[in-house]
Amino acid sequence: MKELHSFGWYAAKLKPDLPKKAFNPVPERLWGGLAYLLVTVAALMTIGIVDVNPFFYIPLSLIIGACFAALGFLGHEILHGTVVRTPWLRDFLGAVAFWPLSTGPKLWRKWHNLTHHVHTQHEEHDPDAWPTLDRIMKIRLLRWVYRLPHPVRAFFSFCSLSFQFSVHSLNMFVVYLKEFNPKKRPAVFMEAILPWVTWIALLVWVGPVKWIFMFLIPLLIANLIVMAYISTNHRLNPTTEINDPLANSLTVTVPKWVDVLHFNFSYHTEHHLFPGVSSKYYPLVKQLIKERWPERYHEMRFDKALTALWLTPRPYYNKELVDPNNGNSFGTLGHGLDPDNIKSSISEKMYNTETLVSLMTEGKKQEHAKDQ
């Protein structure tokens, strides 16, 4: 196993090779956001005003959903301070960009910037890390879910990408609201509730049929696009005690025009090394990483990464991905996972039946104790 290094260790070695301008904000990125915003408003107004067969609204719904997702990618960049640095303007623009996904800027910076980025792929402290086998076996519903055959679970897991971001964002609001200073909680609450007030007002204005095409379908599409990226960011990588982006993050490759539309969101390892650098410079960061540590760096074609997610189970056990249903184990990136030849290690399981029974029994005991 390669020695792990912190993201700061890598960044310190690469920073001298980056141009000084790479560390300056790039407000020109806002022109792309303005274009998406104008297209979104135009499409929304067209559906709202023009009365035709709802079937003809579908293309506009697809366009709105794609714009919602792209605005989310820009909002992510804005709230890292790589577009503008003035705090009030950063939060205002971030709120506008995240408005379709109904995620407030203060919550996002707490959940994503200050927690996920600091504790990436730590099995206890990263709010976005997929749970371990031990945690799954302690939850009754998940024990039942993981009795289903893997293809069935994979199908429903991919379907759930269409609402996972919205559900997880709501959960993060519940988890982190109490951690904010009491004086700031009203602002955090308002940032979370105002977008939904907008969408409910839209429902009242246009009625349920048009609302489905103006917001619900686009929201599902945006979730699907955003989560297709997010699900590949780390879920094929192992959990790590040290936040080593070259071990716990994956960069996916997409056509250049997709990178342009999505603000280089595919460069995820690079982002975890330099979250304060505009994604405009991530191709250069990638080049520098591959020159120094090519054996550590993980990149994969986007469609291949999604296929690997489909073919592998999600619970972690040590550095493996395991299937509680049949006991099969799979490697993770850097620990035996070959995306071109994904195979389970039936003869070399990282845990046995006795371990699984023990975990399930312990989980049932804890639930029984809570019920008393």
Automatic annotation (TrEMBL):
It holds the Pfam family FA_desaturase. Keywords: Membrane, Transmembrane, Transmembrane helix. It comes from the Bacteria. The keyword Cytoplasm does not apply. The chain crosses the membrane at residues 30-50, 56-76, 154-176, 188-205, 211-230. Residues 57-302 form the Fatty acid desaturase domain. The keyword Transmembrane helix applies. CDD domains: Delta6-FADS-like (cd03506). PANTHER family: DELTA(5) FATTY ACID DESATURASE C-RELATED, FATTY ACID DESATURASE 2. This is Fatty acid desaturase family protein. It comes from Halalkalibacter alkalisediminis.
